[in-house]
Amino acid sequence: MPEPAVLILGGTGEARSLARGLAEVGVPAVSSLAGRVRDPALPVGAVRIGGFGGPAGLAEYLRAERIRAVVDATHPFATGISASAATACAATGTPLLRLARPGWADHPLAGSWQWVDGPAQAVRAAAGRRVLLTTGRRTLSEFTALEAPFVLVRLVDPVTEPLPPHWRVLTSRGPYTVSGERALLHEHRIATLVTKDSGGAMTEPKLLAAAEAGVPVIVLRRPASTPGVPAVPAVAAAVTWVRETLGPLR
Hints:
The chain is of the alpha/beta class and 250 residues long. It is 32% helix and 20% strand.
């Protein structure tokens, strides 16, 4: 089995598509998943699960495995690993590309949403309403101060930490449908949707359903991208970059 030439940092649908695309053109790659999801969807090819131990640990991995290029295809809000990748790749001279799905800033409905710069602003904006919260597990502690009569939080995995008594956890994994999201909003009498600018089509139905139901939407803006790292919005462009960066494989 050929040693991996490319490290894909991911766990996203784009990362899985990239692993498949590289396999189809004969480029060996290993996909790295953080391991936060209990039963993750696995990509084709080699997979490693778990953290690297910060930038120094990632740099050591790149050297030890003789990785020739890295594609950061992590979630748009996974700023920690993106920063580590930039530092580690700079230290080892490893080419780095960011594969980032387009956000929703240009979405036809974007002008009707309330955009905020973080959970604290979202907490203030959603106070007093019945809320559907879809910002992910890592933000939960920042939303427990939300003064709302009811909060339905949707997550991939169950939570173990205690949550306020008026919260209900719904474990679910997309993709979703507009009709399903519409029914969810109606069943729980949701008055506000709080989400983040994840982008992509898999979770867009909740935005369309909210618009149909007249439910206000609060969107957390994306964090700034890592300076100096080239980025592409599509898997095909990432495959092209990898092939041009590696050149002919031995």
